[in-house]
Write the structure tokens for this entry.
Amino acid sequence: MGFVFMTSTPHAKRWVATFIAVFCLAALLLPLAGPFSLDLARVRERLEPDWSIFVQLRVSRTLLGLFAGGALSLAGALFQAMLRDALATPYTLGISAGASLGAVVAIWLGWQQVAGVPAIWVASLGGAGVVVAVVVGAALQQRRVSSFSLLLSGLAANSVCSALIIVIYGLVNTTQTFSISRWLIGSLDSIDYPTLLVFIAVIVLASLTVLRQAKAWNLMAVDPSWAATRGADVARMTFTGYGAGSILTALTVALTGPIGFVGLVVPHLVRTRIGADHRVLMPCAFLGGGVLLATCDAIGRTVLAPSEVPAGAVMAIIGGPYLVWVLRQRSTS
Amino acid sequence: MTHRLTVEHVAWAVGGRSVLTDVSLEIRSGEIAAIMGQNGAGKSTLLDIVAGLRAPTGGSVLFDGREAADWNQRDRARLVTHLPQLVRSDLPFLAGELVLMGRYPHTDRWFESEEDRQEVERAMRRAGCWDLRDRIVQTLSGGERQRVLLAACLAQTAQILLLDEPSTHLDIDQQLQCFALLREESARGAACLVVTHDVNLALSYATRLIIIAGGRVAIDLPADEAGRSPDWLALFSPRLVLSTTSSGRPWVSYS
């Protein structure tokens, strides 16, 4: 007996396994793409400059793309579940804008490090935290969070943060202008391995916290009262959701700048092609988002070589038309 | 084992406006209590408070003699289920997935077991929505969706059922089937608290009629007694009259 949904156990396992394989394949193959064509034999022999370019530049940058894209995409799926809206992202609530504002303030004031941690991380987390507190606080009525007020106050937070970024932009010197504007487009750069490892560790921890509760996210995505009357701890889910969602968003934004559509495109694609069950959706969104961002970056550094198209721009060129298509699908359904 | 739901002096006020002032009632296994009253009387509010979705401003709710707040959430979800008036989600869950969620408090496994799936199939067949299992919930009609939600509550195999207008959007035959299902549930030992506007369905299927008016329980009558003395009808409309059908059943019509 029994029956088969799209997300029956073997079906789910097969999809997640496929995505893991593609993620690993991307980690192996994407470092080979770039303006300088590597000689694999020389890399294997550890001959310069091929070896250094491969390890110091390409591999670290690819790993950053894979985990940053994964974090933003998972955060997208998470906020879509919490707001029960397929178009929600960390952008919608202004979290990403708050993190950007924090980072821009850090660049403006020339902060380098806070307690041994890059100041830009701390400032991003701080900005995201303030926005979450204000936006969620404003939408909180009678112990319930109203999604409508949430979206509205998120919109307000977005405008305020963007306005402040523009104000700061007018105050800074030319070098800072350059680094801020380059940062705001959203791009991947090669980073040193200690920083990368800390980043990956935090992202993996935050992601696992979210993923462990995938079954309960299904309930939350239907309705918080539905979740409560099926036995989920809604208060704890909301707390972990906003907490982990902010960490994923803020840390990634601190390292890459705000990269838009990955959190919208990937969860939506997975949902329409595979299903809405978060036990499959969330891991696939993470893995798929990572592959998409790392691929966009590989395209960006190759097509117009030697000049680079930032990954954020490649993603926007792909993501923008897709968003319009999503809206069309929505209005006809 | 008999289960009981106790509501003690529950009050609820919002923005200085008092909706419920003092509601007390007790429902036991085998009972189907129809909660009735005019629009805005606070029926759904009462059901939400009992389901733990709103905190009462006064009084308390007890399940099997234990304060609702003292229950572990999962244990409580195994005992009590709630059928909402509507769920509004933009995400494309399948009807079968929604019903499978009713198994949440019963299993710690990452994926549901074969027994869980069989429970889901049984619930969906009983609610007459098994053939909708692979449809996306938003594409269902109001009545189809209502049957899927009801199946999700059945799959939860709870002992206390809280249902907010379960027959909304259902055609007449489905309304009868829905209330017949509640009869089956109460026969196996469940206690049902049902908000409904349909006086005749309540008279035919409920064992008790509880009418909320003026923020308190105005009438609390066994259904067969309510079928004999029609005074309570005046709380709904002066135009209602109680008569008897040729088969001897009480029937409310309007003059």
Notes: Chain B touches chain A at residues 14, 48, 51-55, 73-78, 80-82, 84, 87-94, 96-98, 100-102, 104-105, 110-111, 114, 117-118, 121, 133-134, 138-139, 156 (CB under 8 Å). Chain B has one domain: 4-86+159-254.
